[in-house]
């Protein structure tokens, strides 16, 4: 397969899965392996194209960010709570990354870990969907400090490839009573500082893994992931508000089981 097709496919996978509760990292690892390439060799590329998906959130929610930005200068309580909640939710992941970042990186090419995490995460989603009854919160700015910190702690589970950062944060928020729409949007907004920080940290530490001729491919992959993420995020909130997360849970279980079978036959 020509490299350019791999670049485009991985860009599509990143944009398609970054904000769904199915694990973008896990799918990138499995997709790379399925296409006959080494996930370890393409690890840096898969991290480097994340800004494309991040920028999609900025474009889609620019009015929300503008209102928060201007609200800070007007000293509006809601704007300050919005920023506070995002910052508090980021702290646990930053601390954990600094403490055990090297161990986490060692799992990024492990397809077996991804497969099992997909299955276990799918079962967890079904349980939470059945047992938890969220209530309307009215937006990220209305979450309490405790709720934000709890979501931040649960987000740390997503450092295991295959768990899904969006899945962990959305279901974590729902488990403490946050409605689906607010939980999904909190996950989107939280992705910006979390993924940006993780991308900068990883690339600063491993910039030597990116050859000079790879930067053009990274630009293409980022652009593809941006376009796909724009479409996916616009559809996602309406879908989960109407149908819930069970379809994603069953997808995770089936995909994880299929991956285990495929890995055992290689």
Which stretches are low in confidence, meaning pLDDT under 50 for 5 or more residues running?
none
Q: Hey, roughly how much beta strand do the residues contain? A: under 5%
Largest sheet: none
The CA-CA distance between the termini, in Å, is 19 Å
* Topology as a string of helices (H) and strands (E): HHHHHHHHHHHH
Write the layout of secondary structure elements.
Elements: H1 3-17, H2 24-34, H3 43-48, H4 50-60, H5 62-73, H6 77-106, H7 111-131, H8 145-155, H9 165-175, H10 180-205, H11 215-243, H12 246-265
How does this model look, in words?
This protein has twelve helices and no strands. The protein has helices at 3-17, 24-34, 43-48, 50-60, 62-73, 77-106, 111-131, 145-155, 165-175, 180-205, 215-243, 246-265. The longest helix has 30 residues, at 77-106. It is globular and about 55 Å long. The mean pLDDT is 86.
Top keywords for this entry?
single chain, 266 residues, mainly alpha, globular
Task: Give a brief description.
This protein is an all-alpha fold. The protein has helices at residues 3-17, 24-34, 43-48, 50-60, 62-73, 77-106, 111-131, 145-155, 165-175, 180-205, 215-243, 246-265. Helix 1 (3-17) runs antiparallel to helix 2 (24-34), helix 6 crosses helix 10 (180-205) and helix 10 packs antiparallel against helix 11 (215-243).
């Amino acid at each position: 397969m020509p490299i350019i097709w791999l670049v485009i496919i991985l860009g599509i996978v990143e944009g398609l899965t970054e904000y769904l509760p199915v694990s973008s990292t896990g799918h990138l690892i499995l997709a790379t392996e399925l296409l006959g390439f080494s996930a370890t060799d393409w690890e840096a590329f898969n991290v480097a194209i994340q800004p494309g998906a991040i920028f999609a959130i900025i474009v889609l929610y620019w009015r929300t960010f503008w209102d928060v930005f201007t609200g800070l200068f007007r000293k509006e309580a809601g704007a300050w709570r919005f920023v506070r909640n995002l910052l508090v939710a980021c702290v646990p992941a930053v601390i954990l990354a600094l403490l055990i970042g090297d161990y986490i990186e060692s799992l990024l090419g492990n397809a077996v870990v991804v497969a099992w995490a997909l299955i276990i995460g799918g079962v967890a989603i079904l349980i939470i969907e059945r047992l938890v009854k969220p209530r309307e919160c009215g937006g990220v700015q209305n979450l309490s400090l405790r709720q934000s910190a709890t979501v931040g702690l649960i987000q740390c589970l997503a450092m295991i490839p295959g768990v899904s950062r969006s899945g962990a944060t959305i279901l974590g928020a729902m488990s403490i009573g946050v409605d689906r729409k607010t939980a999904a949007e909190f996950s989107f907004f939280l992705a910006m500082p979390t993924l940006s920080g993780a991308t900068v940290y990883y690339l600063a530490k491993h910039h030597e893994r990116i050859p000079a001729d790879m930067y053009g491919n990274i630009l293409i992959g980022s652009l593809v992931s941006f376009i796909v993420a724009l479409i996916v995020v616009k559809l996602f909130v309406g879908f989960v508000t109407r149908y819930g997360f069970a379809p994603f849970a069953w997808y995770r279980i089936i995909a994880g089981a299929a991956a285990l079978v495929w890995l055992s036959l290689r």
